[in-house]
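Project standup — Tuesday

K.O.: blocked on the structure for the chain from last sprint. Re-posting the sequence here as requested.
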Amino acid sequence: MVTGWHIVSPTLKGPVIRLPEPRYVQVSLRQPYSELQHIYSRLNVIMPTLVPLLFGTMTFGFEGKNGVRTSSLTQCQGILDVFFAHGQTELDTARMYAEGTTEQILSELNLKGATIDTKVYPVKPGDHSPVNLRNTFLTSLQHLKRDKIRVLYLHAPDRSVPFEDTLREVNNLYKEGKIEIFGLSNFAAWEVAEVVGICKAKGYVLPKIYQAMYNAITREIETELVPCCRKFGIRLVIYNPLAGGLFAGKVTSIDDQTSDGRFNPSSNMGKMYRARYLQEGYFNALELLKDVAEKHNLRLTEIALRWCQHHSILDVSDGIILGASSAAQLKQNCEDSAKGPLSQEVVDALDEACKIVKAHGSTPLYWR
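H.V.: unblocked you, prediction finished:
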């Protein structure tokens, strides 16, 4: 196998493989993993083994807004620069993040050619009607100071609006060149199949990316959603790989009233994360993992990220969203994500921890 190659910008559009000879080959990450293996083998180059990272910007925003942990433009830029220095180029945001101010912060930063994906959440019934969806999305473009973005996600289903009406408007935005890719998030697997069916029947742009909650001890997507996405050629991008920061070990009990981080009980985001992860099953699972981590001289966050990379259902065509409140934190997480597989003892412990969470009925639904 030749060794004089590297991958530039492993984004959804596909990496560019540079060979020793002066030729380039574009590979689409939308292709099934088996097809990617065949292509790399035919080119006689080594296939990348790491799942691409995306940076989740949810904690960027104006001071005092819901969930904001970083409001300084200098600090935000420093965090992104660390991300870019590790060869990553995909940024994730949403209209609702930080009460709409995350997108404004991003518009003031040097994104160095990175792609931006945003999402429209149905805060109230009717938000995904054609008129409301368009108006909300155009507000995103205005705040981002862009004419177009890469991915527009429906952040969750708005079941008060017929899917066909919503999808028709998404298709209009796509035909107008305002979005490159259509995505879904927090939809049930059967709803994903319904969306695909409608889009095929009507000739609308198909969903090609799905953003899901997933980590080593929260695996609800594996049974139905993952097979659904694989069947329809939909890329999986996962959020909460560290269980919202629970793997950091700063929150140690259900009654912990920490005012720092995502579990701050005084913020709406904190209340959401407390309801999601501050459950008996999760803390029992972490107690098991702490012993294994200490035995192998590993941090829990490192274990969680390496599991996502090497032992989960993800492959190199998917993605992992990392968040961070400091450049140092992101640097560590990027470095941990680049490390190799875990020992079988650690993997077995994670499997057992996941069973503990499920046995306690603590696992949150992957759909909303």
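K.O.: great, moving the ticket to review. The chain has two domains: 6-43, 53-359. The longest strand covers residues 179-185.
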